[in-house]
Amino acid sequence: MRPHEPEPVRPTKEDEVARAGSELIGGPLGRRMLYAATWWSPVRIIALIAIGMFALGMVQKMPCYNGAWFFGTSSQYTHACYSDIPHLYQGRGFADGLVPYFDKLPGDMEYLEYPVLTGAFMEVASWVTPGSGSMPHQEKAYWMVNSAILMVCVAVVAVCVARTHRRRPWDALLVALSPALALTATINWDLLAVAFTSAAMLMWSRSRALAFGVLLGLATAAKLYPFLLLGPLLILCWRAGRWREFGAALLGTAGIWLVVNLPVMLLANDGWSKFYSFSKERPVDFGSFWLILSQRMDSPLSTETVNVLAMALMLLACLGVAALGLTAPRRPRFAQLAFLLVAAFVLTNKVYSPQYVLWLIPLAVLARPRWRDFLIWQACEVAYFLGIWMYLAYTTSGDAHKGLPTEGYQVVIAVHLLGTLYLCAVVVRDIWMPERDPVRRGGDDDPSGGVLDSAEDVFVLGAAAYPARTVAHSTAGPAVKWGSAVELPR
């Protein structure tokens, strides 16, 4: 540490659950260790722990190594070791050398239904996969190759989260030790987008708006959800008057997204558009509250109706987050609003795959770095992870019906929804009551906010909702009018 830098925050000093858990490894970290000259910095320790947890997740998939993926047996569900990766090696033409988006696939799918950058990831991994041996052997090798690259993504996520909050690197232990991350990391390719998004958050915390935009554009080219972060950023930059920085972020995002997508869009438009048409035409699927409704309704809603209703709910959530950002007594932190909006997308979507939890983990750690709340949410997600495989085992085991019946699966969906809503609720509480926010209670404003950190407000709504705070801390004259440009005390 440099002499002028503030002391890093020790979770074992301020978090009761972290303090109790540290007894397993010898007790809380002493203050002298913060200043000890050693190679074992927090970032390196966290990265190695994240890699170790990822490796444990690979071990958890071992029951499927013997061909359960290829033969499609129910054992891949009863052992909770299912992964899309080996199935799509042959199912999306990689085993036959087909080029994504350009070559048609046999069957009803026609083209690869993934964004361009994820398709490139899948294609590059297929080049490294040995093309000899039996198909089960090739599928296992393809999963191994992808897992090796995804392990790098996990390390990137852990390092970026650790470095985003300069004084709180140890918060990233929540990412590294996340059981849901270990269990879902190799189900699909979502970690690529999560890594780019985490790197973008790090760049924004360093006030590098254009680099943030470029990385967010790459993340959006790999998965759709990262572009949602521009919404909270717009609200916060509006409130702080940081239009130049928001413009740079928007330009970088749109520019790099076009650079990645435009060649495929022009040369193979039918294949490029498959992801978007598939998302629209996809019926209600696993994990969503829409599935509970459809299973309990005599006449389930059509896909078109669900699309409209889900879009309306998401729009309402966006308006709610915008109102929260503009009317809160103190400007919310960027990570807080980002988590809320992505969580709203997860909750209102017509499908929830188990690996979608990866989208929320880094944002949750930055928004609410409290072990108790994080572990409550993780317990709910682990319950859902086990529940969906037991349900699929039940539906694929024939007359034996070994697994979780429909009613039980609906319960674990509800557990997942309630766990996410709980974490959203405590984040909203932190926004309305900044003294409850773990980050701000330690003296920081918005470490992940970059140019927003400690910036003065120039625009707020609903100033009359907190006149006592304004009167107590401001020497400005008369009351603020609704929607007027103001500078409020932080």
From TrEMBL:
Keyword Ribosomal protein: no
Superkingdom, natural source: Bacteria
UniProt KW Disulfide bond keyword: no
Membrane topology: Multi-pass membrane protein
A Pfam family: GT87
Transmembrane segments: 39-59, 141-162, 174-204, 210-236, 248-268, 306-327, 374-396, 408-428
InterPro entries with a match to the protein in the record: GT87, UCP010361
UniProt keyword annotations, A-Z: Cell membrane, Membrane, Transferase, Transmembrane, Transmembrane helix
Compartments, as annotated in UniProt: Cell membrane
Residue ranges the record marks as coiled coil: none
Family assignment from sequence similarity: Belongs to the glycosyltransferase 87 family.
Protein's name in the database: DUF2029 domain-containing protein
